[in-house]
Design a protein that fits this description.
Blueprint: H1 4-11, E1 30-39, E2 44-53, E3 60-68, E4 72-78, E5 81-83, E6 89-92, E7 96-99, E8 102-106, E9 111-122, E10 143-159, E11 162-165, E12 169-178, E13 185-190, E14 199-205, E15 215-221, E16 224-228, E17 234-240, E18 243-249, E19 254-260, E20 267-272, E21 279-297, E22 300-315
Antiparallel strand pairs: 1-2, 1-12, 2-3, 3-4, 5-6, 6-7, 7-8, 8-9, 9-10, 10-11, 10-12, 13-14, 13-22, 14-15, 15-16, 17-18, 18-19, 19-21, 20-21, 21-22
């Protein structure tokens, strides 16, 4: 009990001690939760986000639901909201309840998700999370950590009045947190490869003051999880209009990621602004982009695969945000 106060104060800066649990709430201005569900056979994708924010009044959340195909998007501002302090999970009024075990979203009679997550491949217990040693550094602009790398999703959804079963789909869940969103960021994730048990996720952002663009990558295959994060891995990132290129190298491996729209159009999604309930429409995310992945060791290629159902995102600077449509009213 003596250490509870100092530890909570330290974690409220966004940092976690070695062997900590980055998935549980930190007490930062923004705690972000994200679920992605892919039915490869039906070629459908559902995405749910929840950004829980602290302000002068009660905590509130931005909740969004989007799907492919069809371009469906729905979002709302919800209060009260809470981030789970003991594990991965969030609650936003009667609109959302999500964890590593399941997800329930209600954004109207024609827009809802009800899922159970089973047999999950979770982030393995390690000294550091996905960011590596940077995890212990307080005060970073943003922190990121995949929680459920892959799980079987069973349940139903209704998207614009169209109901569908999701039994046997693959689910992924992650968390991000900090004082707010970066001015510019990039992200990607896919578990929909021809090879069973293969998946990848990456996230990075620009740090103008330092002239740096740190990027972390997590790759899993055959039950093994590889992390590529500074300073033990060095990455180079190049972005174009709906194009992503990440090159990262560790002491043992070289990883190359190429992402593109491949004819898919991005969803424009809300970004919560901590403080008074407010959002900016400055996230452009492809729900079904093309992602090529190659992992090498020396001259030997270990993995060479392509996913056509990848999530790929770029964040616009705050000044370049698109006009924000009105959030959906609470059903």
């Amino acid at each position: 009990m003596v250490l509870r106060g100092p530890l909570d104060a330290y974690r409220s800066t966004g940092a976690d001690p070695p062997f900590g649990d980055p998935a549980r709430a930190h007490g930062t201005a923004m705690e972000g939760y994200y679920w992605r569900v892919v039915d490869a056979e039906a070629r459908s994708v559902i995405m749910v986000l929840c950004g829980v924010c602290r302000g002068a009044g009660e905590p509130w959340a931005a909740v969004a639901l989007a799907a492919h195909p069809g371009g469906f998007t729905r979002h709302a501002l919800v209060a009260p909201a809470a981030a789970e302090p003991s594990c991965f999970g969030a609650v936003a009024g009667d609109i959302l309840r999500g964890s590593a075990d399941g997800l329930r979203v209600r954004l109207g009679e024609d827009a809802w998700v009800d899922l159970r997550l089973r047999s999950p491949l979770l982030w393995p217990g390690r000294v550091f999370g996905a960011l590596g040693p940077a995890q212990v550094v307080p005060g970073l602009g943003q922190y990121w950590h995949p929680v459920v790398l892959a799980a079987r999703a069973d349940g139903e959804a209704c998207l614009g009045g169209v109901r569908l079963r999701l039994d046997g789909a693959t689910a992924y869940a992650e968390k991000n947190w900090g004082p707010g969103f970066a001015g510019r960021w990039w992200w990607g994730q896919s578990s929909a490869f021809p090879e069973e048990g293969l998946g990848v996720a990456f996230a990075g952002g620009a740090l103008p003051r330092l002239g740096a663009t740190p990027t972390a990558v997590v790759l899993w295959h055959g039950g093994q999880v590889h992390r590529f994060a500074p300073p033990l891995a060095r990455s180079q990132v190049a972005l174009g209009e709906l194009r992503w290129r990440v090159r990262t190298r560790s002491a043992r491996y070289r990883l190359e990621i190429e992402g593109e729209a491949a004819g898919s159009c991005p969803h424009v999604l809300p970004v919560p602004v901590p403080g008074a309930p407010k959002i900016e429409m400055r996230s452009e995310q492809l729900l079904a982009g093309r992602l090529a992945l190659r992992l090498s060791r020396g001259r030997r290629t270990l993995i060479d695969s392509v996913s056509l159902l990848a999530g790929l995102e770029q964040g616009r600077p705050a000044g370049g945000a698109r006009q924000s449509p009105k959030a959906a009213p609470r059903p």
